[in-house]
Amino acid sequence: MNPPLESLTSAAENQNTGFVQFEPGLNKNAISLCMQDQEYIANIKEVQVYLDKVKKIVRLGCSQEVLNVAVSSMSSVVGILSVMSSKPKPHASL
Questions:
Q1: How far is residue 63 CA from its own chain's centroid?
Q2: Of residues 52 and 17, more confidently modeled
Q3: Which of helix, strand or coil describes residue 72?
């Protein structure tokens, strides 16, 4: 004998079929990494938005003052990021 259709549909509605499954024993590190990846991608996109804004402001015909500030600021940012990216990353200790 088959179960009634209503019990099958209600069981299917209560089942979590999404990517993030909240069940006992779930690897929470995987969820954390997924969230970190999303945040990382969002930050990359934000940097690209800022770079696009700078490109729109600093064009032929912009004032010398705007150009000087842009060169100085971008030079500082590149210098700081270069130093940060060349440092060895610390290892986590147990």
A1: 34
A2: 52
A3: helix
Which tokens go with 13? 């509605």
In sequence order, which ranges of the chain are alpha helices (DSSP H)? 5-14, 28-57, 64-86
Task: Give the position of tokens 């909240």.
Answer: 22
17 — pLDDT class (breaks 50, 70, 90): very low
**Are 57 and 74 in contact, with CB atoms under 8 Å apart?**
no
Higher pLDDT, 60 or 12: 60
**Residue labelled with tokens 């729109």:** 56
* DSSP state, residue 50: H
Instruction: Look at phi and psi of residue 82 and say left if phi exceeds 0, alpha if psi is from -120 to 50, else beta.
Output: alpha
For residue 33, pLDDT beyond 90: no
CA-closest candidate to residue 57, choices 43, 67, 45? 67
- Whole-model pTM: value is 0.55
**Left, alpha or beta for 83 (phi > 0: left; psi -120 to 50: alpha)?**
alpha
